[in-house]
Amino acid sequence: MRNKFFNAVLLSAAVTFLLAITISPGLAAEKKYRFMLGTAGAAGEVYVWGGGAAKVITQFSKDVQLTAQLTAGSGENLIRLNAGTLKIGIASNEWNWELFNGQGGLPKYEHRALFAMYKGDWYWGCRKTFPGNTIYDFKGKKFSFGPKGGGSYGMIKYGLDALGLKFTDFDAKYLSVAESVNALKDGSIEGYFVGIGTPSSAFLDLATMPSGLKLISLSPEDIKRCHQKYNFLTETVIPANAYKGVDYETRGVGRWHFLVCRADFPEEAAYQIAKALTEHHKDLMAVMVAAKSSTPENTVQQTIIPLHPGAEKYFREKGYLR
Fold it and tell me: Where in the chain is the domain with CATH 3.40.190.10?
């Protein structure tokens, strides 16, 4: 499956790249470094963060201009980094681990980390009227796991495996954030999983459903099983009352999202990106509350691939790395 996905993405990436260089030649002189930033689907937090980061970096760096681009998510972004049709993108840590180590059917490519985004929390949501209270109650039900190639799909693949489950145990759908929200509202699906930051605009919306929103936790035993098998899956807690009508904590597993780039990404551009995101953190948080976790400390502590030398240089200068 991954090989077919790889070939399809290469074809679409080539078309996207040709369109990009055809329609925007007049912008080349604006800044020294101009890049498309691979994000994810519209209406998702990854795209919101990417758009905010692109704005902050373009506004506050001397030489870097970024434009957020809609993509299928982490898998597409990383494959396009490998192919050279994308220089910088967003990816969750299970996909970073796969590509860097040549696992999961992906070609091995040693890309680099630039900046931490946030931990994608465990969101297993359904209408409050759904009779079950564990993820196992959704077996055989119509359920969306996000688009194949996206970060949430990659994350839940490992979570299900650790718990002895498969996508085929469900009537699995692979819908975008917007499609999943609409399908859950109109009853086309029974539930939706996504790994995103808190608060989530998608779930703020779902909490207004006439039926109300229910969030399903994993048991402590299941959380332990996930972390023991895949150590990049760590416990997450969505606080009580984060969403209307959800007056209890929701516990599960999640993983970090990162801004990443090709190993040959210009060192000065990487330095300026790390500098802009660090020194203008409040401007990024003004776009997305979950960006409170987008800090140099989390970047240094949570990356599972090497830092880009340009970002590393900035962090060392400012004392975040010794």
Answer: 2-118+257-317, 120-255
CATH of domain 120-255: 3.40.190.10
Cis peptide bond upstream of 199, omega within 30: yes
Q: Are strands 171-173 and 112-127 parallel, antiparallel or unpaired?
A: unpaired
For the residues of 50-98, what is the DSSP string, one character each?
A: HHHHHHHHHHH-SSEEEEEE--S-HHHHHHHHHHTS-SEEEEEHHHHHH
Q: 2-118+257-317, superfamily in CATH?
A: Periplasmic binding protein-like II (3.40.190.10)
Mode of pairing for the β-strands spanning 112-127 and 191-196: antiparallel
Whole-number Cα distances in Å, 242 to 92, 197, 198, 200 = 23, 12, 8, 9
Give the pLDDT confidence of 85-98 residue by residue, as tens digits. Answer: 999 999 999 999 99
Per-residue pLDDT, 193: 98
Q: Name the one residue in this structure whose structure tokens are 């059917």.
A: 105
Cα 198 to chain center, whole Å? 13
The rounded distance, in Å, linking the Cα atoms of 286 and 198 is: 14
**pLDDT of 40-89, one tens digit each?**
988 778 999 999 999 999 999 999 999 999 998 888 999 999 999 999 99
pTM over 0.85: no
Q: How many CB atoms lie within 10 A of CB 57?
A: 27
3-state SS, residue 3: helix
Whether residue 250 contacts residue 262, with contact meaning beta carbons closer than 8 Å, is answered with no
- Range 41-56 burial, b when 16+ CB lie within 10 A, else e: bebbbbbbbbbbbbbb
Sign of CA dihedral 73, 133, 183, 8: positive
* Phi, psi angles (nearest 5°) of residue 86: -145, 135
Q: Which residue has the tokens 């949501």?
A: 125
Q: Both tokens of residue 228?
A: 């023991």
